[in-house]
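To close the chapter, one final illustration. This time we ask the reader to focus less on the individual chains and more on the assembly as a whole: which components sit near each other, and how the overall shape emerges from the parts.
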Amino acid sequence: MSIEVNGVSYETDENGYLVNLEDWNEDVAVKLAEGEDIRMEEPHWDLIKFLRNYYEEYQIAPAVKVLTKAIAAEKGMDKKEASEFLYGMFPKGPALQACKIAGLPKPTGCV
Amino acid sequence: MVGATDASSQEVHHCGGCHAEGNGNGKFLNPTPMLDELESGPWPSFISGFKGLAERTKKPMLRGVMDQLEYSYNTKMGYWKGGLVTVDGYGAGIITRYSMIKDKFPEAAEFHTMRIQPAPGLHYNTAMLRELCDIWEKYGSGIITLHGQTGDIMLQGIEQNKVQQCFDELNRKGWDLGGAGAGMRTAVSCIGPGRCENACYDNLKLHLKTLKHFVGVLHRPEWNYKLKFKFSGCPNDCTNAIMRSDLAVIGTWRDAIQVDRDEVNAWVEKKGMDALVNQVINLCPTKAISLKDGEMHIETRDCVRCMHCLNVMPKALSPGKERGISLLMGGKNTLKVGVNMGSLVIPFMKMEDDEDIEAFIEQIEEIIDWWEDAGLDHERIGETIERVGLKQFLDGVGLEADINMVSRPRDNPYFKAPY
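The assembled structure is written out below.
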C-alpha cells in the first residue's frame, strides 16, 4: 500500500503505517490524519511532536501511562482528565491513531 | 437461535445449532479430515458446533476458519496475528486476529474477537441473551464463548468494518466491551447472595460499583499491566479469585461459625457419629473441631475458614454473624515471576453499606496509585510487591502490618472435595 502527498508516493504497510520513518513530514501527517478522520490542530501537533521526540530518544513508542502523565503535567490536569483529553483528540486511541500519524511503527504487543 | 427475534410468539422454537449433525453437510463446508478426528472421541467437540453453525448460517467466514485450522493441523503452525482494532473512544476490548495466510484462505482474512462484560454473578435474562445472539449473528460469525478465561462473553469472528456498528447496536441494548491490555480488566463474581446461602457480603453489588468506578481505565488502559478483580462470596472461592486475580475479594467472617444444634443432631442421626468424626472432625485442617461431652465443639481461635465443615453440614453450620471481606493480592499465572497465589493484605473489612464500599474503593485507589509509580512496565502488582518487599508496599499504601499478612493466609487453599 502507499499514500500520495504533493505528487510523491510513500510506502505504507497494510494497516496504513509508514514503512520508512524518514518519509514523515507535516504534509504526510495531515494526509495520514485525514485517513483517520482527524483534523490536525495545535494540541494534536504537540502530541505528535512529543511522540517523535520520545521515539528518537528511546527508539520505542511511549507507554500510554507515560503519555497521560506528560499531558497531565503540561496541562495541569489529573490523570483521568488527561486520558479523556487524549481520547478526545484520538478517539480510537493513541496507540492506533497518534503513532500512525506521527509516522512511528505500529506498536507491538498484545492489546 | 432460529426465529428467536419475536419474543411474543407462541411457537416453540428449536435451537438450530444443537441438533445439527456434524458430518452430514450439504457440501457447504470443505473436507476437513483432521478436524473430523476431534469429533470421534466421547466428548463434545467444538468442531461439531462449528459445522452446525456454518451449515445453518452459511457464513463463509466459518468455512474459511475451519479450512485454515485444518491447514494448521497439517503444518503444526498457527497463522493468526494481532493488530489494532477499536471502536470510538475505546482503547481496548477487541482482540484482533488477522490471518497470516489470507491469500490461501481469503474467507478467514479477519476473525476478531469482541470481549463483552458479563453481568455480576452471570445473571442474565433470556431476552438479553436472545438480543445478544441475534445482533452477533447479524454482524459476526455467531460463535460465542460463554464465558472465556477473562470472564467475558467472547464474541469470536467479526470483520473490522463491522465492529463499530455491531458495538453500537450491542451498546444500545445495554452491553459494553470488556477489558484488555494494561488496564482494569473485566471482573468476575460468583452467584452471590442471590442464590447461595454462604455469601458473606453482597459481592454482586460490590462488583458492579467497583467496576463502574474503574470503567474509564477499563476501556482506556494506561497502567503498568493488567489488573484483575474477582469477587467471591465466601472462602469456597468459586471464582478461583485467589489464583486468578490480582485483587481477590473473598467473603469471610470474624466471629464464630454459627451452629444450629438441632440440625447438627439431625445430621448425626441420619449419617451417624462415624461420619461426624471421619468426614468432619478428622478432616479439619487445623484440628479446630472436637467432641465435648458427645457434642460437636468448634474452637474459633483455631478456625481458618477453610469451609470444609460448612460444606459437609450445610444446614447445621453457617458462616458467623460478623461478616465482611478479605482482600488478597498478587494472584497470577505464568510470565516473569511464576504462578502465584494471592497473599492476604487486608484480613477483614466490613462490607455492609455504601460507605463500606466507598472505603473499599478508596483503599484500592491508593493501592493502584502506589503500583503505578512503583511498578515497572509489564509487571503485575504481585510481582511489584515481591520485588520491593511487603513492608515497602504496606508503607506506601498506608496499611498496618498484621500477623495474618506475614504468616500463610490460610492453612488450606480452599480445598474442594467432591462431596
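Chain A touches chain B through 22 residues (CB under 8 Å). Residues 42-58 of chain A form the longest helix (17 residues). With these observations in hand, you are ready for the problems at the end of the chapter.
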